[in-house]
Design a protein that fits this description.
Blueprint (H helix, E strand, L loop, with lengths): L4 E9 L5 E10 L4 E5 L6 H9 L6 E6 L2 E2 L10 E4 L11 H11 L4 H14 L15 H13 L5 E5 L7 H18 L2 E6 L2 H7 L2 E6 L2 E6 L1 H6 L4 H6 L3 E12 L2 E6 L2 E7 L8 E7 L4 E4 L5 H7 L4 E12 L2 E7 L5 E7 L13 E5 L6 E4 L2
Helix pairs in contact: 2-3, 2-4
Length: about 375
């Protein structure tokens, strides 16, 4: 099978010996929306720049549609890149900015103008086509950068945190437009972001990176609910993590001895007897019961023994959402939220004792290292 993009054991090591990217493997099908996600300095932008040709590859192979691109200069690659600052020309009109790449390629004016008009219409910016870019809003400039990247009809569009400069409301609106545009055009998108919400909302698959290495590549829901490594469990979502030792594995459910007692969750991989593990419980999986009127035996039966005593330390209502913080016996705090009809302030006053529980299928047990 020929992929739109394939990275095969790609490394990037700088002249001073610093490793920026190590053993990166990825295969991207046509029309996929892939997000690179991770903390600052994890190697995600370096990887994007290697795909674009702005950074050399130290070892490994980078393929686009089956052709090796390691030594192909940026201008000859079937890619287009949108930078965080958009890199627009302030002295040019919107129309000239959008058509600049076609002009550099030497495309005849009539054909170039037709392509520019089509992409301006697609992105709904025909009415500002004759304005200078330094007089436009952030959202308009972002759309112009998209138009300039797409008008050259790349096989792959590379986006380096393109929404980072926008305010929260505009960012959400552009997210929706970006996803719809990508689906409509069928272009492969590689998107770098440090914002989990963007990666989870936009992408078909997410590549989580840490210190130059790939930690996990999964669809958003799988990544969120079934982390493969301790780093992903700590980095994605809001998880409570219990360390312990495997006591038994029964039909895919691991029983774990922890400081909080015997707890259980889905075995995320093959786990040996007495293996050191982490039991990962997403905040969304946790149910809260007032301890004062709880039937512990019934709760234990309903949740296969997954009970933890806790105490409410904060309760806030934001609109129709209740936000509750609970202290565990070991001093850690769990943050939970739900609709106010589920968690009402009068049922969970600050200082009251509660019981936390979860279904084993909604937690994940993974090796601790």
């Amino acid at each position: 099978m020929i992929f739109d993009l394939e990275l095969i054991n790609v490394d990037k090591v700088y002249d001073n010996g610093t490793t920026a990217v190590s053993a990166f493997d990825l295969a991207v099908s046509k029309g996929e929306f892939i997000a690179f996600l991770g903390p600052s300095g994890c190697g995600k932008t370096t990887t994007l720049r290697m795909i674009a040709g702005f950074e050399s590859i130290s070892s490994g192979d980078m393929m686009i549609k089956g052709a090796r691109m390691n030594d192909v200069p940026p201008q000859r690659r079937p890619t287009s890149m949108i930078f965080q600052n958009y890199a627009l020309f302030p002295h040019m009109t919107v129309r000239r900015n959008v058509g600049y790449g076609l002009e550099v390629k030497g495309m005849p004016k009539a054909e170039r103008d037709a392509k520019v008009e089509r992409i301006l219409a697609t992105l709904g910016i025909e009415d500002i086509a004759d304005r200078k870019t330094d007089r436009l809003s952030g959202g308009q400039r972002q759309r112009i950068a998209l138009a300039r990247g797409l008008v050259v009809e790349p096989d792959i569009l590379l986006l380096d945190e393109p929404l980072g400069a926008l305010d929260a409301n505009l960012r959400k609106a552009i997210q929706n437009e970006l996803k719809l545009l990508q689906r409509t055009l069928g272009v492969t998108f590689i998107f770098v972001t440090h914002a989990q919400s963007e990666a989870l909302a936009l992408s078909d698959r997410i590549v989580v990176m840490n210190q130059g290495r790939v930690e996990q590549i999964s669809p958003p829901h799988q990544l969120y609910t079934r982390p493969n490594t301790p780093f992903v469990a700590q980095f994605i979502g809001r998880n409570t993590i219990f360390s312990g030792e495997v006591k038994d594995v029964v039909e895919g459910t691991a029983i774990v001895d922890t400081a909080a007692g015997k707890l259980s969750g889905h075995a995320g991989s093959t786990l040996g007897d007495k293996a050191r593990v982490n039991l990962i419980v997403p905040a969304e999986a946790i149910e809260v019961h007032p301890a004062r009127n709880a039937a512990r035996d019934r709760i234990a039966a309903d949740f296969d023994g997954n009970l933890i005593d806790a105490r409410v330390t904060r309760f806030d209502v934001v609109g129709h959402i209740s936000q509750l913080a609970a202290a565990l016996p070991d001093g850690r705090t769990v943050a939970l939220e739900a609709h106010i009809n589920k968690y009402r302030p009068e049922n969970f006053p600050v200082g009251s004792d509660i019981i936390l529980s979860w279904k084993p299928t909604e937690a994940t047990v993974i090796p601790a290292h």
